[in-house]
């Protein structure tokens, strides 16, 4: 399974290029602007109301299910995703990790198929299937040849509606999830982001790690899964997104048949919560060769129209090999192998982070340099050349992604699930190209001058680490 708990945490270097691309697509939420939406007629019918937005179509069925699709003439494949409007932030205290656990268990058997039947069925259809869980959404998806749509869709729908979550299937899968949690802990460059987020958003449900609490995961049972399903897996929370050689009307007809038995309900609405960020330092001491550092602060929400300027700012700071942080910290001084800046946006807040991997003796200097660059860009702004280079880099990623059916499906599904209106890639590019130097500097002044939260995973003892970090922060 793809776990998107840390999708925003991957650098641009070759080892994680694929995950970075997925991160970018998964976080590409565009805020509604009536001037850039391609308007179409609303058509009412027995299966709900359909809007033709020009580049895609959207239908809201009478039972609350939303269907969005984008037709691509020049491909044979279809990417199909079933998006549930629920994630780790929606868990009760005794459910920490249950959203992700449900993702796993949905592949483990229905009334008519066991786990082996499901795996063999996808393989027999030549389909690639997977799933991921985030803080605000869960997605089950597949990519396949167009002629297999009916068969693949039926399997995915059966999994979502008819999974049995028996204790017999839970026991072996529980071990798998516990192994995944252990693997995450043993990857310090991943774990440092959990540590950072739990600290920065200690008073907010977004601070909880997607993988959850291993002690709770060790005891989840059939009743827990059924309770979660009844609370979150219902029609109003479901978005069916597809891109590729797909006919929208055919997709809508299939939805009307395949989800008849799904629990009915209206889409859950999350109420904004005060993030009350904690500006502090946290460390985890372990035997590692490198020290893994995250410096960060609160950020824009997914609905903030200044996100274009915010993402451009991140690109200039640490989004490529020509970025300021890469140039100053790696190229000029050789203090790190990996360093990058990355924003992640949620419904009511966001997080901006800078990650660096360095030897323990360089921790203080690296933190000092990172903070210096954050303050410098807020104080002095960016050059016209920097802005142009960053803009073209971002726009190039968007347009290159348009060649992939799964890229388009991920964008459509997340846009719709988080409640943002749908705009096409060309309009998205236009919005990025309208960002000015002043726009970028205003975001930098508002957010990057905040006292940072610092997370560190290293071999340095906590008291010494605290002293090193304090000295680095005070020097700025």
Describe this structure in words.
The strands form 2 sheets. The protein has an 8-stranded mixed beta sheet, with helices on both faces. It has a 5-stranded mixed beta sheet with strand order 9-13-10-12-11, with helices on both faces. 42% of the residues lie in helices and 18% in strands. Strand 11 (338-345) and strand 12 (350-358) form a beta hairpin. With 476 residues, the chain is α+β, with helices and mostly antiparallel strands. The protein folds into 2 domains: 4-18 and 39-258, Metalloenzyme, LuxS/M16 peptidase-like (Cytochrome Bc1 Complex, Chain A, domain 1, 2-Layer Sandwich), CATH 3.30.830.10; 281-474, Metalloenzyme, LuxS/M16 peptidase-like (Cytochrome Bc1 Complex, Chain A, domain 1, 2-Layer Sandwich). The protein contains 17 helices and 13 strands. The model is unreliable at 1-46 (pLDDT under 50).
Give a quick rundown of the structure.
Helix content is 42%, strand content 18%.
Helix segment tally: 17
What is the structural class? alpha+beta
Q: Mind summarizing the main beta sheet? A: 8 strands, mixed
**CATH architecture identity of the largest domain:** 2-Layer Sandwich
Quote the CATH topology of the largest domain: Cytochrome Bc1 Complex, Chain A, domain 1
Summed over residues and divided by their number, the pLDDT gives a mean of 90
Can you say what the CATH homologous superfamily of the largest domain is?
Answer: Metalloenzyme, LuxS/M16 peptidase-like
Instruction: Determine and state the CATH class of the largest domain.
Output: Alpha Beta
Q: Give the total of beta strands.
A: 13
The tally of structural domains comes to 2
**Topology pattern, helix = H, strand = E:** HEEEEEHHEEHHHHHEHEEHHEEHHHHHEH
The percent range for strand residues is: 15-25%
- What distance separates the N and C termini? 42 Å
Q: Pick out the low-confidence regions.
A: 1-46
Report strand order across the widest sheet.
1-2-3-4-8-5-7-6
Radius of gyration: 23 Å
């Amino acid at each position: 399974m793809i776990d998107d708990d840390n999708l925003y945490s991957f650098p641009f270097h070759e080892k994680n290029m694929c995950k970075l691309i997925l991160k970018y697509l998964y976080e590409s939420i565009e805020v509604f602007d009536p001037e850039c939406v391609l308007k179409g007629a609303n058509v009412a019918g027995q299966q709900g109301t359909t809007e033709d937005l020009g580049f895609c179509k959207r239908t809201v069925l009478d039972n609350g299910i939303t269907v969005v699709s984008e037709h691509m003439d020049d491909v044979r494949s279809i990417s199909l995703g079933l998006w549930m409007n629920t994630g780790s932030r929606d868990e009760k205290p005794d459910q920490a990790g249950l959203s992700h656990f449900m993702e796993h268990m949905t592949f483990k058997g229905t009334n008519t198929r066991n786990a082996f039947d499901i795996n063999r069925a996808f393989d027999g259809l030549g389909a690639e299937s997977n799933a991921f869980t985030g803080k605000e959404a869960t997605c089950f998806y597949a990519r396949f040849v167009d002629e297999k749509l009916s068969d693949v869709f039926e399997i995915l729908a059966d999994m979502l509606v008819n999974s049995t979550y028996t204790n017999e299937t839970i026991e072996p899968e529980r071990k798998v999830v516990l192994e995944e949690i252990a693997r995450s802990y043993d990857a310090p460059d991943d774990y440092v982001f959990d540590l950072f987020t739990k600290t920065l958003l200690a008073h907010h449900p977004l601070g909880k790690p997607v993988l959850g609490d291993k002690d709770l995961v060790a005891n989840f049972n059939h009743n827990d899964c059924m309770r979660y399903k009844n609370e979150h897996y219902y029609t109003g929370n479901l978005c069916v997104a597809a891109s590729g050689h797909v006919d929208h009307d055919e997709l809508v007809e299939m939805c009307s048949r395949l989800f008849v038995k799904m629990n009915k309900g209206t889409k859950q609405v999350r109420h904004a919560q005060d993030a009350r960020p904690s500006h502090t330092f946290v460390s985890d001491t372990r035997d590692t060769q490198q020290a893994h550092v995250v410096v960060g602060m609160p950020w824009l929400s997914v609905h903030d129209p200044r996100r274009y300027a915010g993402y451009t700012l991140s690109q200039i700071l640490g989004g490529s090999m020509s970025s300021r942080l890469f140039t100053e910290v790696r190229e000029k001084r050789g203090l790190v192998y990996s360093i990058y800046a990355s924003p992640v946006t949620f419904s009511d807040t966001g997080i901006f982070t800078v990650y660096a991997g360095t030897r323990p003796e360089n921790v203080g200097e690296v933190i000092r340099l990172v903070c210096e660059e954050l303050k410098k860009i807020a104080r002095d702004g960016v050059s016209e050349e920097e802005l142009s280079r960053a803009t073209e880099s971002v726009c190039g990623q968007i347009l290159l992604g348009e060649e992939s059916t799964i890229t388009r499906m991920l964008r459509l599904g997340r846009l719709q699930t988080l409640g943002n209106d749908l705009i096409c890639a060309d309009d998205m590019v236009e919005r990025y190209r309208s960002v000015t130097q002043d726009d970028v500097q205003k975001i930098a002044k508002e957010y990057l001058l905040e006292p940072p939260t610092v997370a560190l995973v290293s071999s340095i003892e906590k008291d010494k680490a605290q002293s090193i970090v304090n000295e680095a922060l005070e020097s700025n």
